[in-house]
Automatic annotation (TrEMBL), chain A:
<dbReference type="InterPro" id="IPR036010">
    <property type="entry name" value="2Fe-2S_ferredoxin-like_sf"/>
</dbReference>
<dbReference type="InterPro" id="IPR002888">
    <property type="entry name" value="2Fe-2S-bd"/>
</dbReference>
<keyword id="KW-0408">Iron</keyword>
<dbReference type="Pfam" id="PF01799">
    <property type="entry name" value="Fer2_2"/>
</dbReference>
<dbReference type="Pfam" id="PF00111">
    <property type="entry name" value="Fer2"/>
</dbReference>
<dbReference type="InterPro" id="IPR051452">
    <property type="entry name" value="Diverse_Oxidoreductases"/>
</dbReference>
<dbReference type="InterPro" id="IPR001041">
    <property type="entry name" value="2Fe-2S_ferredoxin-type"/>
</dbReference>
<keyword id="KW-0560">Oxidoreductase</keyword>
<dbReference type="GO" id="GO:0034875">
    <property type="term" value="F:caffeine oxidase activity"/>
</dbReference>
Automatic annotation (TrEMBL), chain B:
<dbReference type="GO" id="GO:0005506">
    <property type="term" value="F:iron ion binding"/>
</dbReference>
<dbReference type="InterPro" id="IPR000674">
    <property type="entry name" value="Ald_Oxase/Xan_DH_a/b"/>
</dbReference>
<dbReference type="InterPro" id="IPR046867">
    <property type="entry name" value="AldOxase/xan_DH_MoCoBD2"/>
</dbReference>
<dbReference type="Pfam" id="PF20256">
    <property type="entry name" value="MoCoBD_2"/>
</dbReference>
<keyword id="KW-0500">Molybdenum</keyword>
<dbReference type="Pfam" id="PF02738">
    <property type="entry name" value="MoCoBD_1"/>
</dbReference>
<dbReference type="InterPro" id="IPR016208">
    <property type="entry name" value="Ald_Oxase/xanthine_DH-like"/>
</dbReference>
<dbReference type="InterPro" id="IPR008274">
    <property type="entry name" value="AldOxase/xan_DH_MoCoBD1"/>
</dbReference>
<protein>
    <submittedName>
        <fullName>Caffeine dehydrogenase subunit alpha</fullName>
        <ecNumber>1.17.5.2</ecNumber>
    </submittedName>
</protein>
Amino acid sequence: MIAPIPVSLLVNGEPIEALVAPRLNLADFLRETLKLTGTHVGCEHGVCGACTVRVDGEIVRSCLLLAVQAQGSSVETIEGLSDSGEIADLQAAFRARNALQCGYCTPGMLITAQDLLRQSPTPDRAAIREHLSGNYCRCTGYQAIVDAVEATAKTRAEQAA
Amino acid sequence: MTRPTADSLSVLDRPNSYIGKTVPRPNLDRLLQGRGQYVSDLELPRMAHVVFLRSPHAHARIVAIDATAAKRLPGVISVVTGRELEAVITPWVGVLSHLKGLKSAPQRAIAVEQVCWQGEAVAAIVATSRAVAEDAMEHIAVDYEELEAVTDMRTALDPSTPVIHASLGDNLAFERAYHAGDVDRTFAESDAVIESEFVFGRHTGVTLEPRAVVADWNAAEARLTIYQGTQAPHMVQNIAALHLGLKESQVRVVCKDVGGSFGIKVHIYADEMATYALSKLLRRPIKFVADRVESFNTDIHARDHRCKGRIGVKQDGTITAFEIDDLTGIGPYSMYPRTSAIEANQVVNLVGGPYVAQNYRARARVVFQNKNVMCQYRAVGHPIACSVTEGLVDLAAARIGMDPVEIRRRNLIADDGYPCASPSGMKFEQLSHHASLAKLLQMMDYDALRAEQTALRLRGIHRGIGIASFIEVTNPSAAFYGVGGAKISSQDGVAVRLDAQGSVICQTSITEQGQGSESLTAQIVGSVLGVSMERVRVTLGDTDNTPYGGGTWASRGAGIGGEAALQAAKALRKNILDVAAAILQSTPAELDIAGNSIVSASDATPRIELNELARIVYFRPDTLPPGIQPELMATRHFVPRQYPFAFTNGVQASWLEIDTETGFIKLLKHWVVEDCGTIINPQLVDEQIRGGVVQGLGAALFEKCIYDERGQLTNANMADYLVPMSGEMPDIEVGHVVSPTQETELGAKGAGEAGTAGAAAAVANAVNDVLRPFGAIITEIPLTPQVILTALGRI
């Protein structure tokens, strides 16, 4: 079964129709077919979290999902989340705290952090560390990332109050 | 109000200086929005993809390669063997002349006749996509005659062990012996001599973006453009040209965003050389991106050492002598061009370095084996030297019943004892071991922590404190590589120019992999010029468009590239003031630049904005007085000459808990005090330290490339090779002591490797602090639960 299969899905709100090889994973589909290179590929076996995207509101590792499995779904990548402004405050906190060095883990880290903040508005540091524990960062040692997520949670809570 | 004249102010105290201030790195939004430009992201017209068929054997003779079936698959452009590629690229030998006796065998871009480690490439498959190339790879038949693999470094030199490269005669790559003072007599006169063997797990960098290169040979221009995530673009240019038979002017190396490096991306790898050659051979752009399994099998490994150490001590705590016998296995080749003898050489240079004792004997042997190559990785040799030294110091303290802090107080070189030299001849300009230790003890509240430890132990909770002092090599001069004949520049250059709207363009030869090279350059240039940082644009990573220089490695970017930036900006500032004086009918001494304007030096009154000055210079030079030729661009280079290395120092402490039932270690807190001289951006320095510490903590607790006796790497994936994740890592508190180097006006030394240098030693000492009441001592990392439980006699 190697004949291309038609898929239709939403990517960052834009309707996409494409013919894809059945074996093509979602990460490669986003990067190579749609040229959305903000989704990074680090390990290609579901450990490092660099390829994290949102599919129908849930975070997934796009290297572990086939593009054909995204049929009918709404996929959101770092480019979409940046343009919509949804994580602008989180990005600003990362910038202020230097919570990124090489930046390769950053898109996945931001999407995972936003997932936590949507589920749990005021997580403590242990909860932040736990939620991010599937996203590998070799540069920062994580503390600055935890600080930035914690600061964003606090600001959002104050604004909501 | 009168102000001091502008020239009497150093850049450190000019008004509105960015030096010493936390400012966000420029252009971070690009990375935050997923709009960086990593080599993995790059696509060029007609670009093809290469994958490498790699040897499944650690040591074998290649009898035959049959690629007939693979070549027939649709989308396959070419299958190239080592023999075929030899016509395009010459072999290399990774030796340096100042490492006397270092030898290695010629290494080829793709193996010819013999494969020497599991993962060495035997054929390149070039296709229209990586997937097609990988499909084709399955159809290549290689007939191997398996040879006995040399895997154990301890028996590599035995007469009964096969010699990997017959032409070399034996498996010894390098040996260095050193003796200072009188170690035998000193040991004889000591109250105790303690001996132990320290064992380090072979580990690797695991950069999140794997090694990636796009090589683009333009046959019409006769020019090769290499897009590569590298720390040293000019070094890559030199090597590629040399082995492809080109002039350096025919090779351009471009390095935009890099997904982590840590020393992994400062070397020349065979598969990268093959990619350059394939582009030339096939006359089209070729892309190679290692996958994760390839990364584990081919990215350099490091730290596979077994080091026997001895320390002499007197009952009053005086350390009398150190002795080491270090053995390391580096794989089948010395890496190119930096060689694989540097790490062992550094161990010899650094052991005992923080201490007064001048009696020191060392031997280091570097042997070949049929495993992946080893070479320089963040903090080269330091973690080994530090773990051996600090492990021995703690053993000595325990033997004479002295607190680990007290024995260090009594033996660390006094802060007013500089300049001085270590027993291995390392020159220290100014270190601050005692001030650093004092600050560390205050930050961690050492006495309270000891009391807490004692109280908890009564309740069956086993916590430990570990301390490790360290020194770090930074700002290397030509002494590192240049004197050995390598074309690796130790100087860096910066060009600064004022543009037509009064903004500043700055080109630097240092590179950026996330450390903040761009930021520190903009901070220095902005401060010296009196221009706001938003107006300073920094270009890096392009051999066509930056001055010639070394790049970013060995903690040299801020200290060397930063000083070049400072001097270039000073020169431009003088040129601007000369023009301003002509325009304003004043003198340069009466003027200054502040807030993007020429101002009066005496009272800071704005006189003319820089954009107006630039407008006159570029568009109305006819209005300038006769004879004035403005030069709104200046270039300066810098290299350290007075000291071969600008040593830094620091001290780390670990506070951890061991579950004696499971052997699990919980890191509770980590402290670092370090002295990197002038701090350009405190936040960037702190985050370099933290990231470095966590890299060292990974080595201490988790990371190890596990080879079996046949030379097979058994855990070449991220599920089995464990790296530090956020859940296991502690918060890290960082403090500073500041002893600027007097060799530069900036005074900055390096900070990139200090964290990694001492982290594992602090953890190991803390673990032994826990285990000592159980009568157990561990001198091995990683400290896995199995190692802990074995030491406790539970398994």
